[in-house]
Amino acid sequence: MIAIKDGEIIPVTKKRVERGTILIKNGKIEAIGKEISIPKGCEIIDATDRVVMPGLIDAHTHLGIGEVGIGEEGRDYNEISSPVTAQLRAIDGINPLEKGFLYARAGGITTVVSTPGSANVIGGIACAIKTCGNVVDEMVIKERVGLKVAFGENPKRVAAEKKRDPLTRMGVAALLRDALVQAQNYIEIQKWAKKKKEKPPERNLKLENLTYVLRKEIPLRAHAHRSDDIATAVRIAEEFDIDLIIEHGTEAYKIADWLSKKKVPVITGPALGTPTKIETQNVTFKSPKILKDAGIKFTITTDHNVVPINSLILCAIMATKEGLDPEDALRAITQNPAEILGLGDRIGSIEVGKEADIIILSSDPLDARSKVELTFINGKVVFDIKKEKTPF
């Protein structure tokens, strides 16, 4: 058992606890509060004058499939051989020993979604993983958290380079609709074969992954920057009665009231840095506050390695400079992404029974001078600033 004592605890779901104690047992949070009795033989970590909070969550990255400092050999997130690659799974391209994971742990990020890129109309299945381990299968927290699709410039640009469809926004939408219809037919043929006791159709991995979306087992995760692309993603989701998450959502703030009525969550970012494309010209750190005020469930992302993953807290700080309430900023990188991913019962806050993914910082997390000193995943120290050199 481990006791983290005398720190300022930020549970994110409740008020802060001054000079509180957290007990960790078997990788989970056993108790939290001011008057906690510490059992004999317990390993004690003194957090006096430190801040203790949940491990951070980045809900949209290419961690492990976009390796840091490797160049072309480390870019495994875009399979551009076809515009529709629904059969792909991000888990098959992740290298858990690449340097990006150290960036994550040192930056206090304990869970990420690693997803295929946006070169294709349909990119493949994204997965949620913890940021420490030698074998990715042992790091998985949820293997399927959505099917990646992309609208706008990226699939159009790659198609033009490869001299194939789709070359327009209409073409992107049409290809996605066509794939979903094929998957609907696949489901109906399976039902018919079972009812008639006939031989079922041959297994089709592309269509199989699309059926998870149609059955609402996973959402469609739509890369969409421009407001019109966001609207198209919503339109298609409503046509097929499927769940949707908007990724990036650069111009989501322009249609925030409309998007709020649709009850579609937004993973917003990256906003750190200068715009790199026409569709990101209107990027702003004002977006999180506008989304919050409209009642939209949102989270902040680095889109690592577009922006280094250790900058996640800095992105939250920048949002507070543009009016986002500090507590909402912290929830945007902890509780909110956990809930959007359907993992709110396991991670994202410091509560009894949840997995002990915890970080200890030198001072308030929204002070840019604050440093992550200790990172715990499942109750084990995976980064210690005194023992491990920070890679940035």
Q: What do you see in this structure?
A:
Strand 12, helix 7 (287-293) and strand 13 (298-300) form a beta-alpha-beta unit. This protein is α/β, with parallel strands linked by helices and 392 residues long. The protein has one domain: Alpha-Beta Barrel (TIM Barrel), CATH 3.20.20.140. It has 10 helices and 16 strands.
Order of helices and strands: EEEEEEHEEEHHHEHEHEHEHHHEEE
CATH architecture term:
Alpha-Beta Barrel
| DSSP strand count | 16
The total tally of domains equals: 1
What would CATH call the homologous superfamily? Metal-dependent hydrolases
Give the class-level CATH name: Alpha Beta
**What is the arithmetic mean of pLDDT?**
97
Inertia-based shape: globular
Number of discrete helical segments: 10
Percent range of helical residues: 25-40%
The first-to-last residue Cα distance is: 32 Å
Radius of gyration: 21 Å
Q: Say what the CATH topology is.
A: TIM Barrel
Task: Assess the beta-strand content as a share of residues.
Answer: 15-25%
Which residues sit in consecutive blocks of at least 5 with pLDDT less than 50?
none
Class by SSE composition: alpha/beta
Largest sheet: 8 strands, mixed
